[in-house]
Write a structure and sequence with these properties.
It contains three helices and seven strands; from the N terminus they run βαββααββββ. Strand 4 and strand 5 form a beta hairpin. It starts with a strand and ends in a 6-residue tail after the last strand. The longest helix has 11 residues. It has a five-stranded mixed beta sheet. It has a two-stranded antiparallel ribbon with strand order 3-6. The radius of gyration is 12 Å and the shape is globular. With 92 residues, the chain is an alpha+beta fold. The protein has one domain: Beta-grasp domain (Ubiquitin-like (UB roll), Roll), CATH 3.10.20.
Length: 92
Amino acid sequence: MTVIINYKGQIATEVGKEIEELSFHEPLTLIQLLQALSERATDAVSDFIFDSDGSPRRSLLIAIDDEQVIDFQNTLIKDDCVISLLPPIAGG
């Protein structure tokens, strides 16, 4: 199964790219995908995804195929979807 990850804002800067294609052997939940991304990422990227307790950050906006996702535990990732990770934006 293949998914495309769109990194936005500071996450894209930390990862060093805006888009990445990943392959998995079986369907997985969104939380499993986030854990897999965190395990292979730098500490800075992991800090954008998870807080110090290991919970997904509430400030991280995640969209699958342009629809915002709130339930990370029960959302199943399907083949050929696009997942966007948008960190909080500040400025004025």
